[in-house]
Description:
The chain is mainly alpha-helical. It has two domains: 200 residues, no CATH class; 89 residues, no CATH class. The protein contains 17 helices and six strands. Strands 1-2 form a two-stranded antiparallel ribbon. The radius of gyration is 24 Å and the shape is globular.
Amino acid sequence: MRQLVGGLWEHGPRVGGNAWRYAVLFVIAIAFPAWAKTSSGGNEYLISVVADAGVYVLLAIGLNVVVGFAGLLDLGYAAFFAIGAYTYAFLASDHGLATPLATAIHLPFWLVLFVGMFIAAGFGAILGAPTLRLRGDYLAIVTLGFGEIVPRVFKNLAAWTSGVNGISALDSPELPVWLQGPWSGDPFAVVNDFKIIDPLGYYVIMVLLIAACIVLVTNLYGSRIGRAWMAVREDETAAAAMGVNTVQMKLLAFAIGASFSGFAGAFYGAKLSLVSPENFGFTVSITILVMVVLGGMGNIPGVIVGSLLIYSVIFLVLPSLPPLAEGWAASIGLGGLIPQNGDWPGLGQEVQRLKFLLFGLILVLTMILRPQDLLPSRVREQELSKGTHEDTTIVDLNAETPA
């Protein structure tokens, strides 16, 4: 473990100038639970919210492999998220009794995590094999179609998936042995088959999963595969001319990116204990893409920060706007706008209708003020700061000047 962390510090993050960013994120991840409990009087709501946000961090790290490293536009990424979640639902619940199999399957959480990852990777390869000779917009349209097909398959196969009702009562993660003590508010005791049900437990699992994924992706980025992805991203034709198997590299990027999505989907199903096709629509794919682009394509700390910020805006800031608007109106003497009156739906309802307009304005302003992304990679930062050099005109000083 010491060598692994040392290698990550010396070789991976430092290449992109990210060492201090990883250190800051690590300190925040360690200190956050204590701060959240103290600031909320012992309430673990904020810890649960950040554990949910960690799912989107995993998704964004995976999509960053596809979009940021390999330069492939994937608009159907939520499909692999759904595959991972439904894999957990089938393999860790009593739902099998309600299917034609009539058999309940209860595999351990830690095993199903990897099963979901490999199944999603397999579907990524299946999608990529016939389509990766496409480029640009055509590839994006194919992935968009795949992203629309998968949730509808889960929705219409009611005999296997319960349709729109989804699959509920999924198994909670378990540890074979756990030592409880004063840190959990209990007397010292060894607990067998300890079920993780509290938000702090899910938070710790999520932090460990994200850390493992960061190490994996960082090592991939610095490997021959990572350099091949960058070559394909910059100029696919030139990469092919230099001997890079572009189809194989793009297929590998799709499979690895899909595996992260399946990984996150399995955790999502375990924490929520419910999966439904309504949770894996097109908006999920676009939200994850926004997180990657806004945070910093090709830069893992940037993707993490972008994920947390966008998640906070969508799930914390925007829902709190209606009561805040009503409070502000009352404080400045505009209380007459708060109640419904005729065609006027009321201030809170009007703000609720306009919340995604406000979200769009936030994105536009962010990209105007930070066109290089929030935490850009070194390459992108140099491209935007230096720009492209104008062609140099060579002048022959010995040539005759026309009269």
